[in-house]
Amino acid sequence: MKIGRCHDGKAAFWAVLDTSAAIARPLTGTFSEWAPALTADLSAEPPWAGPERPLKGLRLLAPVEPGAKIVAAGATYAKHVDGLGLQMPTQPAAFLKPYESIIGPDDEIAYPALTTQLDYEAELVAVVGAERIGSRSAALDSVLGYTVGNDVSARDLQFGGGVTGMDMFSAKALDRTTGIGPWIVTRDEFGDDHPDLEIGLTVDGEPRQKDRTSSMVWGVGELLDYVDARSSLHSGDILFTGTTAGVAHETGRYLEPGQTVRVTIERIGALTNTVGPRPTGERAPS
Predict the structure, then answer these.
(1) Which of 20, 117, 168, 197 could form a disulfide with 266 if both were Cys (CB 3.0 to 4.6 A apart)?
(2) What are the tens digits of pLDDT across the range 54-68?
(3) DSSP the chain
(4) pTM given for the model
Protein backbone atom coordinates (compact mmCIF):
# COMPACT_ATOMS: atom_id res chain seq x y z
CA MET A 1 0.00 0.00 0.00
CA LYS A 2 1.25 3.49 -0.90
CA ILE A 3 0.32 6.35 1.40
CA GLY A 4 1.05 9.94 0.45
CA ARG A 5 0.60 13.41 1.86
CA CYS A 6 -1.13 15.54 -0.74
CA HIS A 7 -2.17 19.14 -1.30
CA ASP A 8 -5.05 20.17 -3.52
CA GLY A 9 -4.33 23.90 -3.49
CA LYS A 10 -6.47 24.45 -0.43
CA ALA A 11 -5.34 22.00 2.24
CA ALA A 12 -2.98 19.12 2.95
CA PHE A 13 -4.35 15.63 3.50
CA TRP A 14 -3.20 12.02 3.64
CA ALA A 15 -4.40 9.50 1.07
CA VAL A 16 -3.88 5.95 -0.11
CA LEU A 17 -2.42 6.20 -3.61
CA ASP A 18 -3.02 3.95 -6.58
CA THR A 19 -0.31 5.18 -8.92
CA SER A 20 -1.21 2.75 -11.71
CA ALA A 21 -4.77 4.09 -11.83
CA ALA A 22 -3.60 7.65 -10.95
CA ILE A 23 -6.07 8.06 -8.09
CA ALA A 24 -5.87 9.11 -4.45
CA ARG A 25 -8.32 8.01 -1.78
CA PRO A 26 -8.23 10.47 1.15
CA LEU A 27 -7.85 9.31 4.74
CA THR A 28 -9.61 10.79 7.76
CA GLY A 29 -7.61 13.03 10.07
CA THR A 30 -3.98 13.53 10.90
CA PHE A 31 -1.30 10.86 10.71
CA SER A 32 -1.34 10.23 14.48
CA GLU A 33 -5.12 9.71 14.37
CA TRP A 34 -5.17 6.84 11.86
CA ALA A 35 -1.62 5.45 11.66
CA PRO A 36 -1.39 3.54 14.99
CA ALA A 37 -4.35 1.28 14.25
CA LEU A 38 -3.25 0.71 10.67
CA THR A 39 0.31 -0.07 11.77
CA ALA A 40 -1.02 -2.68 14.22
CA ASP A 41 -3.04 -4.35 11.44
CA LEU A 42 -1.94 -3.47 7.92
CA SER A 43 -4.67 -5.72 6.49
CA ALA A 44 -7.37 -3.57 8.10
CA GLU A 45 -9.58 -1.21 6.12
CA PRO A 46 -8.13 2.32 6.27
CA PRO A 47 -10.40 5.11 7.59
CA TRP A 48 -11.62 6.62 4.33
CA ALA A 49 -12.54 10.32 4.34
CA GLY A 50 -14.41 10.43 1.09
CA PRO A 51 -14.49 9.40 -2.56
CA GLU A 52 -11.36 8.87 -4.60
CA ARG A 53 -9.76 11.79 -6.40
CA PRO A 54 -7.55 11.95 -9.51
CA LEU A 55 -3.85 12.30 -8.75
CA LYS A 56 -3.58 14.85 -11.53
CA GLY A 57 -3.87 18.26 -9.96
CA LEU A 58 -2.64 17.10 -6.54
CA ARG A 59 0.81 18.02 -5.28
CA LEU A 60 2.71 15.36 -3.36
CA LEU A 61 4.25 16.75 -0.17
CA ALA A 62 7.00 15.33 2.02
CA PRO A 63 5.30 12.42 3.85
CA VAL A 64 5.96 13.84 7.33
CA GLU A 65 3.86 16.33 9.26
CA PRO A 66 5.14 19.51 10.95
CA GLY A 67 6.07 18.78 14.54
CA ALA A 68 7.35 15.27 13.85
CA LYS A 69 10.73 14.24 15.20
CA ILE A 70 13.25 13.79 12.40
CA VAL A 71 16.23 11.63 13.32
CA ALA A 72 19.12 10.65 11.07
CA ALA A 73 21.49 7.77 11.75
CA GLY A 74 25.01 8.00 10.43
CA ALA A 75 27.89 5.64 9.68
CA THR A 76 25.66 2.67 8.95
CA TYR A 77 27.39 1.47 5.75
CA ALA A 78 31.02 0.40 6.29
CA LYS A 79 32.18 1.35 2.76
CA HIS A 80 30.80 4.87 3.18
CA VAL A 81 32.62 5.32 6.48
CA ASP A 82 35.85 4.09 4.90
CA GLY A 83 35.36 6.43 1.95
CA LEU A 84 35.17 9.39 4.33
CA GLY A 85 38.45 8.32 5.94
CA LEU A 86 36.80 7.54 9.27
CA GLN A 87 36.84 4.55 11.59
CA MET A 88 33.71 2.39 11.82
CA PRO A 89 32.07 3.03 15.22
CA THR A 90 31.19 0.20 17.58
CA GLN A 91 27.59 1.36 17.98
CA PRO A 92 25.13 3.46 15.97
CA ALA A 93 25.22 7.25 16.01
CA ALA A 94 22.38 9.64 15.27
CA PHE A 95 21.40 13.31 15.28
CA LEU A 96 18.23 15.40 15.06
CA LYS A 97 17.19 17.42 12.02
CA PRO A 98 14.78 20.37 12.07
CA TYR A 99 11.55 20.19 10.08
CA GLU A 100 12.68 23.30 8.19
CA SER A 101 15.39 21.23 6.50
CA ILE A 102 12.77 19.04 4.77
CA ILE A 103 11.54 19.34 1.19
CA GLY A 104 9.19 17.10 -0.76
CA PRO A 105 9.34 15.41 -4.15
CA ASP A 106 10.18 17.75 -7.04
CA ASP A 107 10.92 20.63 -4.64
CA GLU A 108 14.10 22.63 -5.18
CA ILE A 109 17.16 21.90 -3.04
CA ALA A 110 18.22 25.24 -1.59
CA TYR A 111 21.88 26.09 -2.10
CA PRO A 112 22.88 27.71 1.22
CA ALA A 113 25.22 30.72 1.18
CA LEU A 114 27.35 29.13 3.89
CA THR A 115 28.73 26.29 1.76
CA THR A 116 30.55 25.48 -1.47
CA GLN A 117 30.54 21.71 -0.88
CA LEU A 118 26.94 20.55 -1.13
CA ASP A 119 26.74 16.75 -1.06
CA TYR A 120 24.04 14.10 -1.58
CA GLU A 121 23.17 11.04 0.52
CA ALA A 122 20.70 8.41 -0.69
CA GLU A 123 18.89 6.86 2.29
CA LEU A 124 16.10 4.49 3.25
CA VAL A 125 13.75 6.28 5.65
CA ALA A 126 11.62 4.43 8.21
CA VAL A 127 8.30 5.99 9.27
CA VAL A 128 7.00 5.19 12.76
CA GLY A 129 3.27 4.52 12.80
CA ALA A 130 2.67 3.18 16.31
CA GLU A 131 1.92 5.54 19.19
CA ARG A 132 5.40 4.69 20.45
CA ILE A 133 8.04 1.97 20.23
CA GLY A 134 6.32 -0.49 22.54
CA SER A 135 8.91 -3.27 22.55
CA ARG A 136 12.47 -2.50 21.54
CA SER A 137 13.08 -6.18 20.80
CA ALA A 138 10.36 -5.90 18.13
CA ALA A 139 10.88 -2.27 17.08
CA LEU A 140 10.10 -3.03 13.43
CA ASP A 141 6.49 -3.74 14.44
CA SER A 142 6.18 -0.01 15.16
CA VAL A 143 7.07 0.94 11.57
CA LEU A 144 4.18 1.85 9.27
CA GLY A 145 6.43 1.76 6.23
CA TYR A 146 9.38 3.19 4.32
CA THR A 147 10.10 6.07 2.00
CA VAL A 148 13.05 7.55 0.08
CA GLY A 149 15.38 10.21 1.47
CA ASN A 150 18.27 12.42 0.35
CA ASP A 151 20.09 13.81 3.39
CA VAL A 152 21.92 16.65 1.63
CA SER A 153 24.99 17.78 3.58
CA ALA A 154 27.41 20.71 3.57
CA ARG A 155 30.76 18.93 3.86
CA ASP A 156 32.95 22.00 4.33
CA LEU A 157 30.81 22.89 7.34
CA GLN A 158 30.69 19.32 8.63
CA PHE A 159 34.46 18.88 8.70
CA GLY A 160 35.23 22.51 9.47
CA GLY A 161 36.04 21.97 13.12
CA GLY A 162 33.90 22.75 16.14
CA VAL A 163 34.11 21.41 19.67
CA THR A 164 33.97 17.77 18.59
CA GLY A 165 35.85 18.21 15.32
CA MET A 166 32.64 17.76 13.32
CA ASP A 167 29.82 20.34 13.05
CA MET A 168 26.79 18.17 12.27
CA PHE A 169 24.31 20.97 12.96
CA SER A 170 25.73 23.28 10.31
CA ALA A 171 26.13 20.41 7.85
CA LYS A 172 22.73 18.77 8.26
CA ALA A 173 20.22 21.35 9.54
CA LEU A 174 20.25 23.75 6.60
CA ASP A 175 16.84 25.02 5.53
CA ARG A 176 15.10 23.29 2.61
CA THR A 177 17.87 20.90 1.63
CA THR A 178 16.75 17.40 2.65
CA GLY A 179 14.41 15.60 0.28
CA ILE A 180 11.93 12.90 1.31
CA GLY A 181 9.15 11.11 -0.58
CA PRO A 182 7.37 10.60 -2.83
CA TRP A 183 5.20 8.36 -0.60
CA ILE A 184 5.32 5.72 2.12
CA VAL A 185 5.13 2.05 1.15
CA THR A 186 3.73 0.03 4.05
CA ARG A 187 5.89 -2.47 5.93
CA ASP A 188 3.85 -5.53 4.88
CA GLU A 189 5.21 -5.14 1.34
CA PHE A 190 8.69 -6.13 2.58
CA GLY A 191 8.14 -8.89 5.15
CA ASP A 192 8.86 -8.89 8.86
CA ASP A 193 12.64 -8.42 8.79
CA HIS A 194 15.07 -5.68 7.80
CA PRO A 195 14.29 -4.91 4.12
CA ASP A 196 16.84 -5.89 1.47
CA LEU A 197 16.39 -3.32 -1.31
CA GLU A 198 18.60 -1.86 -4.01
CA ILE A 199 19.28 1.83 -3.39
CA GLY A 200 20.88 4.18 -5.88
CA LEU A 201 21.41 7.84 -6.72
CA THR A 202 22.12 9.66 -9.96
CA VAL A 203 23.14 13.26 -10.69
CA ASP A 204 21.90 14.42 -14.10
CA GLY A 205 21.41 10.73 -14.93
CA GLU A 206 24.96 9.70 -14.01
CA PRO A 207 25.12 6.93 -11.36
CA ARG A 208 26.90 8.05 -8.19
CA GLN A 209 25.66 5.66 -5.48
CA LYS A 210 24.49 2.05 -5.64
CA ASP A 211 24.19 -0.60 -2.92
CA ARG A 212 21.65 -2.69 -1.06
CA THR A 213 20.07 -1.88 2.29
CA SER A 214 21.20 -5.33 3.45
CA SER A 215 24.73 -3.87 3.52
CA MET A 216 23.86 -1.81 6.58
CA VAL A 217 25.92 -2.74 9.64
CA TRP A 218 22.86 -2.22 11.86
CA GLY A 219 19.34 -3.01 10.71
CA VAL A 220 16.37 -0.67 10.93
CA GLY A 221 15.14 -2.35 14.11
CA GLU A 222 18.50 -1.89 15.83
CA LEU A 223 18.65 1.77 14.81
CA LEU A 224 15.13 2.40 16.11
CA ASP A 225 16.08 0.69 19.37
CA TYR A 226 19.19 2.86 19.70
CA VAL A 227 17.32 6.10 19.07
CA ASP A 228 14.26 5.29 21.18
CA ALA A 229 16.42 4.40 24.18
CA ARG A 230 17.68 8.00 24.12
CA SER A 231 14.76 10.01 22.76
CA SER A 232 11.39 8.28 22.45
CA LEU A 233 9.86 7.88 19.02
CA HIS A 234 6.15 8.32 18.37
CA SER A 235 3.62 8.13 15.56
CA GLY A 236 4.73 10.24 12.60
CA ASP A 237 8.40 10.41 13.56
CA ILE A 238 10.88 9.39 10.86
CA LEU A 239 14.37 7.88 10.83
CA PHE A 240 16.92 8.35 8.05
CA THR A 241 18.99 5.15 8.17
CA GLY A 242 22.33 6.31 6.72
CA THR A 243 23.89 6.43 3.28
CA THR A 244 26.01 4.24 1.06
CA ALA A 245 29.47 4.78 -0.45
CA GLY A 246 29.81 7.09 -3.44
CA VAL A 247 29.03 10.49 -1.94
CA ALA A 248 30.62 13.59 -3.47
CA HIS A 249 33.03 14.05 -0.55
CA GLU A 250 34.86 10.92 -1.74
CA THR A 251 35.50 12.36 -5.22
CA GLY A 252 35.23 16.13 -4.84
CA ARG A 253 32.34 16.24 -7.35
CA TYR A 254 29.95 18.29 -5.26
CA LEU A 255 26.49 19.36 -6.34
CA GLU A 256 26.16 22.38 -8.62
CA PRO A 257 23.17 24.65 -9.25
CA GLY A 258 20.79 23.25 -11.83
CA GLN A 259 21.78 19.61 -11.35
CA THR A 260 18.99 17.06 -10.88
CA VAL A 261 19.42 14.49 -8.13
CA ARG A 262 17.37 11.30 -8.28
CA VAL A 263 17.29 8.71 -5.50
CA THR A 264 15.66 5.37 -6.28
CA ILE A 265 14.86 2.55 -3.88
CA GLU A 266 13.63 -0.76 -5.22
CA ARG A 267 9.90 -1.39 -4.65
CA ILE A 268 9.39 2.04 -3.10
CA GLY A 269 9.95 4.63 -5.80
CA ALA A 270 12.07 7.58 -6.86
CA LEU A 271 12.67 10.98 -5.30
CA THR A 272 13.75 13.74 -7.68
CA ASN A 273 14.96 17.23 -6.75
CA THR A 274 16.92 19.92 -8.60
CA VAL A 275 19.60 22.07 -6.96
CA GLY A 276 18.69 25.72 -6.78
CA PRO A 277 20.93 28.71 -7.57
CA ARG A 278 23.65 29.98 -5.29
CA PRO A 279 22.54 33.12 -3.45
CA THR A 280 23.63 36.32 -5.20
CA GLY A 281 25.46 39.05 -3.36
CA GLU A 282 26.72 36.64 -0.71
CA ARG A 283 29.96 34.74 -0.52
CA ALA A 284 30.47 31.47 1.30
CA PRO A 285 33.29 31.51 3.85
CA SER A 286 36.59 29.99 2.75
Answers:
(1) 197
(2) 999 999 999 999 999
(3) -EEEEEE-SS-EEEEEEETTTTEEEEBSS-HHHHHHHHHH-TTSPP-B-SS-EESTTPEEEPSS-TT--EEEEES-BHHHHHHTT-PPPSS-EEEEE-GGGEE-TTPEEP--TT-S-EE--EEEEEEE-SSB---GGGGGGGEEEEEEEE--EEHHHHTS--TTS--HHHHH--TT-EEEEEEEEEGGGS-SS----EEEEEETTEEEEEEEGGGBSS-HHHHHHHHHTTS--BTT-EEEEEE-S--HHHHT----TT-EEEEEETTTEEEEEEE-PPPTT-----
(4) 0.94
